[in-house]
Recover the amino acids of this structure.
């Protein structure tokens, strides 16, 4: 035995500062039960890939492998992605009003990697990223890894509030901070479920243009509208001040891990180099299979199938919330995967999670979507994966959890309750199937 | 090469408890160790098909590496007994005693082992008697610092060390989120140790005590499951008398509760060298950061051999 004892990680003191938070946590461990069949998981943002006919995928794979034995698909590829898939991506983005050149598209390992690359290009430790309040947990994790200072900007039912953005810019600049970009999810927001109105898109672009702030428009859910199409992309009216991120994860399947960035020329050049530095080249096989799928399958019809499915589940969730939790408030998404539930002030969504596990329902606490400890009175509910019947069961269980927690807090109503004691501050990154 | 008479072992891990993740990690380590010893091992997450599967396959022995409810509360063990299948670890009756921390403390006390003063309160007690009065009574009888913890459960989930009285209500609420019964007990200051007790056929034997020194000062979930967050000293930095006393206390608790095969007894050794019993685990963590594997290693045991010996002992005990 050493006099210094054993600490099981001899490299503990060698890790970079940016790894702070990369650790096992009680909350993350609780998510482990979400995969059990007894548990209704309203936590995960997993697309319902079972609605994708298997033969559409296997047919595409067969065709890829029949062309020269799949030699190109099995080989390294370009750091920018194949020309063929980039042409398809331009057609997809045209559905949201985007015009441009396939030369400005960089294919990435999911749009998550594009997010990482953009952040790597722009963020020095301490630089400010403006992000909606709340914001996507996977983005917050990236920003934290690059030691960005995330400043949240308020939103309402129409999305990001322009006046709040002006105030945030003024507050940061007046203290000498450097704002590198605004990160926004304008369509069917994750986690809030709301959509940024067209008028606000224009106003926000103007605010950012005036302040010299780049806009990072993340749009994984844009084509999954339930009734009216989402407003056209912000990138459709500004090709110099916006980097647009897109993905096949929700309109096809996340397992391919293929996404993209559409960037102004100069940024695109750096993105390609950064992409090559990170992965040499994006997934060749996935790109070839997706290209075949887009060439041969009725992919627009498949998106309609996804839309109908998610619309039905959204309706089931809103109906169940109305039935079991009528005194609470929640957003009414017009597309995408998520409802944002507001709890009574005295409740804490993160502290309540163990009780939810006992009741066999999982959700994502609102705290996951804030870099500043906010979100304790919120829960993100996902309707994308469980069936409508299970959504109803899950919301009923959630009501039991909330009522049980209220009963507990009511017992201690005369006492001064501080913040839950065991909770670490900051972003707790759920596992990938939860994000 | 397999020198063990065992043909097949089923390891159960996962489940739906709060400690599912820990259980899966422990289970995989047990599987690796047994497999390295040449034993054929099946890893299974218990579900609705489990009992039918066990009835059909009749493994030589089952190792329930299930933390938390159903794994440690005796329920699954009772079913294995009903199915007449040998299993590693304590019987259902003994596991039930150990799972309920207040019961385990009382049995330890009757066996002459010191345990911190404390009381157990249900949520209903607060509801009926009013929080203000109950909290005042707790503060009078058990002045801070105290430890507040769920009466059942592990991995320090829901546990708070309360250093000032105004932190007590929040600590109670946090613990009740996990369990409807909560223990408030006197905090003993001293050296925090864990003593593994194994019995592969020669009677319960204490392993070298593992001393726990968390960087944060609190051996909570983060300190337990993130390598590097805690420094361990094996054997613990105790004088010979204190070490022997701790070992005796651990074996006494193991025997008083009627445990078998394997347990881990958590103790604090105070400045006078006295060992205070905190709790006992019939299924101690067996992950890469867990204490019993560390103690076995320090004692010169090879994990695969010990785990195989425990499984063989389970078969012999069943005969």
């Amino acid at each position: 035995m050493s006099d210094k004892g054993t600490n099981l990680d001899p490299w503990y003191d060698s890790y970079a500062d940016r790894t702070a938070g990369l650790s096992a946590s009680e909350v993350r461990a609780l998510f482990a039960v979400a995969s059990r069949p007894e548990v209704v998981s309203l936590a995960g943002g997993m697309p319902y890939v079972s609605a994708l006919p298997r033969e559409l995928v296997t047919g595409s794979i067969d065709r890829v492998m029949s062309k020269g034995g799949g030699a190109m698909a099995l080989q390294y590829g370009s750091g920018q992605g194949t020309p063929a898939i980039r042409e398809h991506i331009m057609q997809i983005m045209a559905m949201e009003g985007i015009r441009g050149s396939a030369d400005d598209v960089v294919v990435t390992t999911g749009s998550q990697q594009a997010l990482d690359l953009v952040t790597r290009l722009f963020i020095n430790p301490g630089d400010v990223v403006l992000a909606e309040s709340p914001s996507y947990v996977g983005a917050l994790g990236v920003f934290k890894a690059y030691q960005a200072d995330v400043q949240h900007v308020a939103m309402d039912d129409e999305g990001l509030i322009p006046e709040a953005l002006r105030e945030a810019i003024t507050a940061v600049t007046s203290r000498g901070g450097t704002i590198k970009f605004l990160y926004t999810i304008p369509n069917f927001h994750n986690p809030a479920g709301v959509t940024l109105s067209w008028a606000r898109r224009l106003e926000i672009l103007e605010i950012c243009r005036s302040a010299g702030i780049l806009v990072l428009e993340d749009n994984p859910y844009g084509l999954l509208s339930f009734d009216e199409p989402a407003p056209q992309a912000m990138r459709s009216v500004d090709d110099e001040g916006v980097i647009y991120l897109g993905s096949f994860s929700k309109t096809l399947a996340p397992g391919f891990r293929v996404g993209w960035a559409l960037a102004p020329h100069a940024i695109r050049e750096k993105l390609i180099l950064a992409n090559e530095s990170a992965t040499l080249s994006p997934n060749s096989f996935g790109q070839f299979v997706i290209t075949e799928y887009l060439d041969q399958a009725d992919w627009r019809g498949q998106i309609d199938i996804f839309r109908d499915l998610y619309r039905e589940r959204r309706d089931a969730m809103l109906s169940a919330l109305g039935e079991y939790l009528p005194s609470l408030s929640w957003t009414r998404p017009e597309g995408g995967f998520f409802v944002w539930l507001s709890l009574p002030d005295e409740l804490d969504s993160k502290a309540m999670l163990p009780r939810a596990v006992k009741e066999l329902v999982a959700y994502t606490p609102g705290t996951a979507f804030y870099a500043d400890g906010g979100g304790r009175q919120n829960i993100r509910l996902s309707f994308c994966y469980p069936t409508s019947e299970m959504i109803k069961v899950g919301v009923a269980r959630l009501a039991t959890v909330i009522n049980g927690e209220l009963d507990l807090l009511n017992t201690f109503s005369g006492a001064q309750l501080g913040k839950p004691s065991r909770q670490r501050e900051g972003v707790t990154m759920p596992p990938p199937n939860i994000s | 090469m397999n020198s063990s008479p065992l043909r097949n072992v089923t390891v159960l891990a996962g489940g739906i408890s709060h400690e599912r993740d820990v259980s899966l990690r422990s289970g995989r380590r047990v599987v690796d160790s047994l497999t390295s010893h040449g034993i054929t091992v099946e890893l299974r997450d218990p579900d609705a098909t489990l009992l039918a599967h066990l009835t059909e396959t009749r493994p030589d022995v089952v190792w329930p590496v299930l933390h938390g409810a159903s794994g440690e509360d005796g329920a699954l063990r009772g079913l294995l007994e009903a199915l007449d299948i040998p299993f590693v670890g304590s019987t259902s009756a003994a596991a039930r005693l150990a799972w309920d921390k207040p019961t385990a403390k009382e049995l330890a006390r009757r066996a002459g082992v010191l345990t911190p003063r404390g009381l157990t309160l249900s949520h209903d007690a607060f509801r009926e008697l009013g929080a203000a009065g109950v909290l005042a009574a707790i503060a009078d009888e058990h002045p801070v610092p105290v430890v507040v913890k769920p009466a059942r459960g592990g991995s320090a989930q829901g546990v708070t060390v309360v250093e000032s009285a105004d932190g007590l209500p929040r600590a109670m609420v946090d613990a009740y989120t996990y369990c409807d019964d909560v223990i408030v007990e006197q905090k003993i200051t001293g050296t925090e140790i864990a003593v593994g007790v194994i019995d592969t056929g020669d009677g319960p034997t204490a392993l070298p005590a593992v001393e726990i020194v968390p960087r944060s000062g609190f051996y909570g979930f983060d300190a337990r499951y993130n390598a590097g967050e805690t420094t361990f000293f094996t054997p613990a930095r105790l004088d010979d008398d204190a070490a022997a006393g701790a070992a005796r206390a651990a074996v006494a608790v193991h025997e008083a509760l009627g445990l078998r095969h394997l347990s881990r007894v958590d103790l604090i050794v105070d400045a006078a060298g006295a060992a205070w019993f905190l709790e006992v685990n019939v299924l101690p963590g067996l992950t890469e950061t867990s204490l019993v594997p560390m103690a076995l290693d320090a004692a010169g045991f090879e994990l695969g051999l010990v785990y195989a010996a425990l499984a063989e002992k389970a078969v012999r005990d069943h005969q």
About this structure: The longest strand of chain A covers residues 149-156.
